[in-house]
Request: fold
Amino acid sequence: MANGCEQQRRRPPRYHGRTGLGIVLGNVADEIDAKRLAASNGAKFDLDSNALRPPGWTSGDAAGLPMFPAVPRFDECERGMIEHAIRLAVAKTRREYIYPAVHYASSIPASSTNYPAMGQRLRLKSSFVIPSNWTIEEKAILLGLKKYGAIVADNSGGFFSISVAPDDRWPANCFDHLATISIDNFEVIQTTGPSEGPRSPAAPTVDAGPDQVIGIDDIATLNAVINAPNGGTTINWRLYSGPAAVQLINPNTATASASFSAPGSYTFMVSVTDNIHAVAYDAVIIKVMPHVEMTNISTRVAVGTGQNVAIAGFIINGDSPKRMMVRALGPSLTPFGVAGAHDSMLDLRDGAGNQIVTNDNWKDSQEQAIVDTGFTPANDSESASVATLTAGNYTAIMSRKGDTTGIGLVEVYELDSTARLLNISTRGFVGGGDNVMIVGLILGVTDNGTICFRALGPSLAAFGVQGVIADPRLDLFNAEGTKVGANNNWKDSQQNAIQSVALAPGNDTESALLTNLAPGNYTVIVSGVNGETGLALVEAYHLP
Reply:
């Protein structure tokens, strides 16, 4: 929406010489007599569209353009550069408008080309040296005028000026030097129409590819998919952000590579230009993991019927298939004092719910493959499966034969070092007393790892899960049984840290713990506050 008139200070503009660049500040409310304020016309702009107003239509600016998008604002200047074309008012224009203007306001013939047309583009010459002692506001505007230029939007009636948005934060005298810049320091830019030059058909496009997760010793392949019908492209990969410097190889080709010296999250930007159209950009995020991996998760849980079966989930990331083993144990828990351990069945499914393998008694199939892993179940009635899996989400379901209930242990083992386990989780029933949910996690290799544990209950109801635990609690222990972390309601502590990694639980009563752990064995116990029971989901996320 643009008003029909630009409000200006009632006193004369600060700069009004005919040869220097002037600044006009918009009105501030206390300088306007509200009873006398009036608009001569108005103009509406559809903010859901980039369409121009119809030819011949004016707006708050005589050129028929929206005003606010081209007006510098205080916050833009504080960032150090105006990153768009700037609205420009000149003393006189000729009787002509050029794209993107749709209206003129002049009696000077169109043939008088020494006068600019509405929509005319001007740019501060690259040869103009911006003095280092000028204000940040002046530098921001001049850098914008050098790169994006200015667009003639109105007749000023007597001076060459730009407007800035009203803001009480503008420092006094922050634009004083601009009046010293002569019009001779500007150049006229050849204007192209709506389907010419940078707006012509067949602009290049680029896709930087999917985000990746790799190890610190791995080399990331940056593979851009480029569509450039006009050919003649220039390609450039660069590091946009990250915790440390990287080594880029072949950055001016579609397929580049990068190696890293520190773990963390890195963003790479690829640009493609055909020297006709606007530059095409895309970005890819590479998460570089330290020398640590989640190699195993095991959960001891009460296994019921229907929705109360035990469900273990895990996410594999990487380009290479990964060999995994899943076990469902019951009777072999009895010698360890676990009461109610029953025979169990195992069902492994992919992210789409398709069954990959199922097993009742582990010797029924894959016996030798399971023996070769060294993780043979101790009881013949227990279940196990070995599978080579590509990147994706997987679910292992442990249930009881004949719809019986009892205690079981579901385990997920990593059998090779290809790809990575980024997330492992178990959904099961949290009982009282000894029937709490107990999760074991093994971190391998040499470096510490950042792990976020979560225990969810109420937020599962949104996915149709009934009988969820109302207030789960999470306690973390190391291999010696020492408590190394705990949380009841996730906002009690680490709220900002957990939100910063986008892992905030959906309910305030749920638990989360973000911690840095050395390689070793860890145990998470999920219980209900005040002895509450119900279904819960416990998760471990490996973060860069």
Remarks:
- The longest helix spans residues 136-147.
- The chain has four helices and 33 strands.
- Confidence is low (pLDDT under 50) at residues 1-19, 26-35.
- Residues 338 and 407 are 8 Å apart (CA to CA).
